[in-house]
Structure formats: structure tokens, C-alpha cells
Design a protein that fits this description.
This protein has about 200 residues and is an alpha+beta fold. About 35% of the residues lie in helices and about 25% in strands. Helix 1 crosses helix 4.
Length: about 200
């Protein structure tokens, strides 16, 4: 199903009910696929899926193009290839399921019902696209990359660490007073210290 600003909320809530959770979200810019030299905003999300693989919880890595111009011309947002990952205890690290099980793997839901990987990828892409409309708190790197890209195009000065602190203060105020719902690692005021910690790299 094509996901857009009209239907994303319904698809997102359906995915939540099924067991999808956005555990992390990071925005960055990259050159588009048509070599025009234009930068486009991409949202990379790590999702906990409703499925297991041999008892191991399955995560998904999804990248969604959130460029407004592309969405307007298509009529929907596009999420690229979905990668499924598990934590492999033998290796002590996250591993891509396709690499761990090159001969194929089986995903099962909480009732033990099997879902084929291709169908799982479609459902995951729909949820990832829908959740890309949700708000997430920018790290300092995300904030400076985004703000400086926009400021540069408008001929404005580069953002400063104080600008980022002001942004975080406003976000925390909205979380407390306006019930702002965020996804990813930082979802409530008590989590905001994680965002402030990302400023450490910019104090040197």
C-alpha cells in the first residue's frame, strides 16, 4: 500500500497494534539517485518487528526518503530495501539474517504462524513509511546537519551549540505541556539527557 500524509496515521497505529516499535530513528542527507547533485533527507529507522527467528527477536533496518518534493511528485513516500537483523549470541553482535542464514530463514509471529520474508518486508516497509511521519528528537549531529543545510541555502549563519540547546528546551516543553509524542530512543522528558550528551563532540 502506498503510504502518504492522508493514511499514515491509520497504518502506523495498525502496526503498533501488531507489535512494531520504532527503537531508533536518525535523519541524514544524501545525494539523490539521479546524480543531479541535490541532497535529499533520508530517515533511517531501526524497528522491533512482531516476529522471531528460531526464538530470536527480529529487528528491521529501513531507510525512507522523506524529501517533500519527491513525495509530492509521487503522491507517497518511499522506503527502500528492508534488512532483517537478529542478535547472534555466538558472535556477540547484531547480524543480518540474510548473511546468517544464506539458505533462507523462517519468521514466526507470537502464535507460531510462519510469515514469508518477502511479505514481512512489505509489511515492515509500510510501517516504516508510516512511522517516518512521526516526530523524533534530533541528536546534535542531526540538528547541525539539517539546520546548516537549510541555513546555507537561505544565506543564514551556521547553527551554534546554543541553538541546539534552545531546540531541546522547546522540545522538552512540548513533551511536558502539549503531550508531544516522539519515537526512537528519546520519547519522554526523562530521556532528554541523551540528546544533551550528543553535544559533547561539539564542545572541543
Amino acid at each position: 500500500m502506498a503510504v502518504n500524509k492522508e493514511n499514515h496515521d491509520e497504518i502506523y497505529r495498525k502496526g503498533l497494534a501488531e507489535g512494531f516499535i520504532v527503537t531508533d530513528a536518525v535523519q541524514h542527507y544524501d545525494y539523490d539517485n539521479y546524480s543531479t547533485g541535490n541532497l535529499e533527507p533520508l530517515l533511517e529507522q531501526l524497528l522491533l518487528t512482531p516476529w522471531d527467528c528460531d526464538g530470536m527477536p527480529v529487528y528491521a533496518l529501513a531507510v525512507t526518503n522523506i524529501d517533500y518534493g519527491k513525495e509530492r511528485s509521487r503522491g507517497y513516500r518511499d522506503t527502500g530495501n528492508i534488512e532483517f537483523w537478529v542478535y547472534d549470541e555466538e558472535q556477540g553482535a547484531p547480524v543480518n539474517l540474510a548473511a546468517l542464514r544464506p539458505d533462507g530463514y523462517r519468521l514466526t509471529d507470537s502464535y507460531g504462524k510462519t510469515i514469508i520474508a518477502s511479505q514481512a518486508a512489505i509489511e515492515t516497509a509500510e510501517f516504516a513509511t508510516a512511522s517516518s511521519y512521526c516526530f523524533h528528537v534530533f541528536t546534535a549531529r542531526e540538528f547541525f546537519e539539517t539546520r546548516n543545510y537549510v541555513n546555507g541555502r537561505m544565506g543564514l549563519p551556521k547553527a551554534t551549540p546554543q541553538d541546539y540547546k534552545n531546540y531541546l528546551v522547546e522540545i522538552e516543553r512540548k513533551m511536558k505541556n502539549e503531550n508531544l509524542i516522539a519515537v526512537g530512543k528519546i520519547t519522554k522528558p526523562e530521556d532528554m539527557y541523551q540528546a544533551y550528551d550528543t553535544l559533547d563532540d561539539y564542545k572541543r
